[in-house]
Task: inverse folding
């Protein structure tokens, strides 16, 4: 059995982290632009 891949938590808070790095991937939690003009409009 292999050992589990470690997690790196970014901006951790009481209930969740702002992002997690696991196995070379970054998982974001509710990240949005501060400037709404940067949001994509073609959806």
Result:
């Amino acid at each position: 059995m292999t050992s589990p891949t470690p997690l790196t938590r970014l901006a951790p808070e009481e209930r969740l982290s702002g992002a997690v790095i696991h196995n070379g991937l970054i998982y974001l939690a509710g990240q949005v632009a501060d400037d709404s003009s940067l949001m994509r409009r073609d959806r």
